[in-house]
Amino acid sequence: MMKFNLQRLGGGTVEFESNSVLEFPxxxxxxxxxxxxxxxHEEGKPTVFYLQSLDNPAVLFSLGDPGxxxxxxxxxxxxxxxxxLKVTPGDELLLEVIxxxxxxxPDFVKVNMLAPIILNITKRLGLQKILQNLDTQLAxxxx
Length: 143
Hints:
This protein has one helix spanning 79-84; strands spanning 2-5, 13-16, 22-23, 36-41, 48-53, 60-64, 93-102, 105-120, 125-128, 137-141. By secondary structure, the protein is mostly beta strands. It has a single domain, classed as BH3618-like, CATH 2.30.290. The strands form two sheets. Strands 3, 4, 5, 6, 7, 8, 9 and 10 form an eight-stranded antiparallel beta sheet that branches.
C-alpha cells in the first residue's frame, strides 16, 4: 500500500495499491520529472478524473472523456508511441483531455484538444500526445 497527501484535493491522505500507479516514461511536456501519476475522482462524479503527480504534489490535472463532452476526434499513435505504451492486442486504451476553468469565466470549461492524454490501462502506462493542425481550445458552457 502507498500513502499520499492530496494537497490540491482537500489535503487528505489516501492509501492505494502500488499497482494502480500510472507511469509516464517521458513525463509530460513541461513536467518531464513527473513520471508517476495516480487517477482519482470525486465521490459522485465518476466522469471527471484528477491526474495527480506522485513525484510533485503540486502537479494535478483535471481530465475528461471527450465523448462525454460531445467531442469526437481520432488520434493515431506512431510506432514509437505504441512502443512507449507497450501496446499489444487486447490492451485497454483510454483517451482523455485536460479540462480547466478560467477564474473570470466560471460557467465555461476549456478543453485542451491539442494534447490529449493516452493511457494504456492494461499496462499502467501513459503519454501526452501533441497534435498538429487543430484548434487549441473549445469552450463548453456548463449546465
